[in-house]
Design brief:
With 644 residues, the chain is of the alpha/beta class. It has 20 helices and 19 strands. The protein has two domains: 43-393, Rossmann fold; 402-416 and 456-490 and 504-633, Rossmann fold, CATH 3.40.50. The strands form three sheets. Strands 1-2-3-5-4-8-9-10-11 form a nine-stranded mixed sheet, sandwiched between helices. Helix 7 (220-231) packs across helix 9 (273-280) and helix 9 runs parallel beside helix 10 (297-313). The radius of gyration is 27 Å and the shape is elongated.
């Protein structure tokens, strides 16, 4: 009854959504490359940097407007040979504790300070690979502050009663990151703020020369390093490792970043990876890469080449360097050696003649700042990222809902032009019910599909039906379809892009977990967000095209929009944008505010949307429909009972 593979052999649609997003991205990158090629003076570069910086700050939600007291606590000291390690806890926001290790060399100071940003390791600052970087730096006369990011080390934000309610690291970052996105900000806001406050603390220490500050980190720590290079002018040298590549190179990998690495409009408005480097000019920056990384080395080479043009305008080409080590993703010993030498030259004025060895590391537990190994174990009343996001929700003031606000949130494209519909099957399937298999172009490059069921004598407005898996669940949803047909309505079971018969192929290694953060739909949703739109918005645009087609086929001015599961969300979002006589929803999407308020929310109910809560929520949308006398029902078939 439903479509076979490749729309019954008529068209290969498995790659269309992937190719569409990649094509849009490559077009946007080409436009921005053209813009950057016209930067011919330092003044041009400064204006461009300011534009990128302002965009980045806007999409991460800005930074907190005031700084609380750090209230640092030193909970222990480890004496090493020629250095000591202080276990330091400070607060970056009121009650939001940051655990860190401060490595201090013996001898007279003040000495240069290096901020170490940790990548995605469970042990974070205490991860032996990261310890070795800190140990080599302190042995060369640098003070080093290694900081646990939220969700790692001693800062698990969903830890309770000795267990993780949400898996540490990338999963936790994305779990809270989706809530941030609904509020029109990025979880990156809090990563950056922790490091800004860490730099405040490092600068406050009498052993540290606050005019000679640097930063390094790899992987997720390379991400944080890059963000700080764009935002904090106190940094005089930097060494981002195993992160810098390019947006274009990333698109070909199938990899999915976590939410702090996916910012709205990153492809269309920046920053691309070369922008982080160019924004740092003419200060010295060393990019560390490994030749077999999933952060493609060819992207790193290209980004350094692009940024070198800006460094040349400053007469500082020698201040930008790329070091490539052999191997796969890690802070390789050769990169460690190169980073230490980079800081020796540019912060100490010493030659680049350091050769690394194999520094002896400590058991991670020796470096804990807390007794329990978790901030929430020692300080049960400490603020968590959930508390902080809730506080931001409390500041929201909604505007009067309008379709324009909805379109802006969705990043809704205006689709028009010929659809060239194909009816590839038209037959009677039971009791006078006809079924047509239909597909057509929603926009160039994107086919959508549907099954149109027609009863013997349709008399009422037709139904555009949106189900979780679209036409792929026709057989198991036949009772529902038959009930709608019994109302003397045509039923168009519709597949917007990414659903049912036009679902994309799997593009990464997460299989059989349809709501995992790093599966195909998550990756494509993040790509759409970096293009300044949303996958949900693109799907709603398809629904509007489906509604246009159905009204034309039925010869009716209005239709019934009906949806179940995630199809209910698409139906609700499309309703204010087309002519509907009823909206019927089953398994209704929870209010966006409820998702934010709920500490542990179910993944399958949450879309990746940027900023609806800035101005509206679903109850505002429903009220708008009610004022236009459009009934909204909590079920899909008659008898419908009372509406919302």
């Amino acid at each position: 009854m439903q479509f076979g593979p490749f729309l019954d052999g008529y068209h290969d649609v498995e790659s269309q959504l992937i190719d569409y997003l990649r094509r849009k991205a490559e077009e946007a990158i080409a436009r921005r490359d053209c813009e950057k090629s016209n930067l011919n003076s330092i003044e041009d570069c400064q204006r461009y940097r300011q534009k990128v910086r302002e965009h980045f700050l806007k999409v991460i939600g800005g930074l907190p407007t005031s700084k609380c007291e750090l209230e640092p606590q030193i909970t222990g000291v480890i004496q090493g040979e020629g250095y000591r390690i202080e276990k330091v806890i400070f607060q970056s926001l009121p009650g939001f504790f940051v655990t860190s290790n401060l490595y201090l060399p013996e001898g007279e100071g003040p000495v240069p300070g290096i901020l170490f940003a940790c990548g995605h390791s469970r042990d974070a600052k205490a991860y032996p690979v990261y310890q070795k970087v800190c140990l080599d730096l302190v042995a060369n006369g640098f003070a080093v502050l290694a900081v646990d990011p939220q969700g790692q080390g001693e800062r698990l934000q969903y830890w309770r009663d000795g267990r993780e309610d949400v898996r540490w690291g990338t999963v936790e970052h994305s779990y809270s990151g989706i809530k941030c996105s609904l509020l029109g900000m990025s979880i990156a806001r809090y990563f950056v703020w922790d490091l800004i406050r860490a730099l405040d603390y490092l600068s406050s220490r009498p052993e540290v020369d606050s005019t000679r500050l640097g930063i390094t980190g790899n992987s997720g720590g390379g991400t944080q390093t890059s963000y700080m290079m764009l935002l904090d002018d106190r940094l005089k040298a930097a060494a981002p490792c195993t992160y810098i590549t390019s947006r274009k190179a990333y698109l070909g990998t199938g990899q999915a970043h976590d939410m702090e690495q996916n910012t709205l409009g990153a492809i269309t408005h920046g920053p691309d990876h070369d922008d982080f480097l160019a924004a740092f000019a003419p200060r010295p920056a060393m990019v560390g890469a490994v030749d077999s990384d999933f952060f493609n080395v060819e992207g790193a080479v290209r980004s350094v080449e692009k940024a070198r043009r800006v460094y040349a305008l400053y007469g500082a080409e020698d201040k930008l360097q790329l070091e490539v080590a052999p191997g796969t993703h890690c802070y390789h010993p050769l990169l460690r050696q190169a980073a230490v030498n980079w800081f020796r030259v540019h912060l100490l004025g010493l030659p680049a003649d350091f050769e690394t060895g194999d520094p002896k590391t400590r058991d991670p537990q020796e470096l804990y700042c807390t007794e329990s190994g978790q901030v929430l174990g020692d300080f049960p009343e400490a603020a968590t990222i959930h508390d902080i996001i809730l506080e931001e929700l409390g500041k929201v003031q909604h505007k009067d809902f309008t379709p324009g606000l909805l379109e802006k949130t969705l990043g809704l494209p205006k689709l028009s032009g010929p659809t060239y519909p194909r009816v590839i099957a038209n037959n009677e399937i039971a009791d006078g019910i006809k079924r047509e298999k239909i597909f057509f172009w929603s926009e160039p490059g994107i086919l959508v599909s549907g099954l149109l069921f027609t009863p013997t004598e349709p008399a009422e407005d037709p139904v555009l039906l949106l189900l979780e898996d679209g036409t792929a669940e026709t057989e198991r949803s036949w009772e529902l379809i038959a009930s709608l047909l019994a109302e003397k309505r045509q039923v168009f079971l519709f597949d917007p892009r990414g659903r049912g018969a036009v679902s994309p192929r799997v593009i990464n290694s997460i299989k059989g977990q349809p709501h995992h953060f790093f599966e195909t739909e998550f990756r494509l949703s993040c790509d759409a967000q970096m293009l300044g739109t949303s996958l949900v918005g693109l799907q709603v645009a398809d629904v509007l095209r489906g509604a246009e087609y159905l009204r034309g086929r039925a010869g009716r001015e209005k239709l019934v929009l009906a949806g179940r599961g995630r199809g209910a969300l698409l139906a609700a979002l499309a309703a204010p944008l087309t002519e509907v006589s009823q909206l019927r929803l089953s398994q209704m999407q929870p209010d966006f505010a409820e998702i934010v308020k709920t500490r542990l929310y179910p993944l399958e109910r949450v879309p990746i949307l940027f900023g609806p809560l800035d101005s509206w929520d679903l109850p505002d949308l429903y009220q708008y429909l009610k004022e236009r006398e459009i009934p909204i029902y909590r079920q899909l078939t008659a008898p419908l009972g009372s509406s919302l």
